[in-house]
Amino acid sequence: MQLEWKELRNDLRLRYYVYLAALLCTGFAGARSALGQALPTATQSSQLSAFGGITGVYTGLPGAYGGAADGRNASITAGVTFGVRSFHSFYPSVEVRGTYPIASGKVVGEKNILGGLVVAKHFGRLQPYGDFFFGRGALTFVTPYFNQQDTSVFVQTVSAVWAPGAGANFFLTRHIGIKADFQLEHYATPVVSSGSIYSKAGTLGVIYRIGGGFKHSRR
To answer: Is a pLDDT exceeding 80 seen at residue 105?
Structure first.
C-alpha cells in the first residue's frame, strides 16, 4: 500500500508539472499573439513554435531478474519553443518539453517534464541547435525491479533530470518542418550501484512555426 501511495503521489506531482508547463506555454502564445497585433510585421523579432514526435529511449537497464533486456522503450515528446532576437547570428530560445511512454518495453518507461535553453544557428531552411534542459522525471518499471544488490525492490523512482543535447530543424515551408533531436538524460536512481543512469533519447517529429521567421538583426 505504501508503494502504491508513493507511486500515485509521484505521478500526481509529475502531472502538476505538465499542467504548469501547459499554462506557461499558453501564456507565451498569448504574448506572441498580442505582440503580432501590436507591432508591424517588419519589427517583430520573437518567435513561437511547437513540436511533437516519436521518441526511442535506451536506458541500458538489464531485465528485472537479470535478463538480457536493455530497457528500450517508445515514447511521445512534445514541447514549445519561444525565441528572441538573434545575437551575432545565433538564435537563443527558451523551451519546455515533456516525454511520456507509449510502449514501456520489457523493463521501464520514462516520463519527464523539462525546461531549458536552446541555441540555434540558421542556414536557410536548416537550423541545427544545441540545448541543455533541467526538470523532473520518473522511471516506472514494468514489473517490480530489484536493485543490483538484491536488497530492495522498486516499482518507480523519481528524481531531478538534467539533459544536454543537440538536433536540427529543417523547414519544408515557412511554417512546417521536420525535427531530429537527441538528448542524454541523467536520472538518479537507487536500482543501480552507481546511483544514476544516462538514458539516450532520440526523437523524430514535426515542428510548426507560429508566425514568420526571425527578422535578422543588422546590428
So the answer is: yes
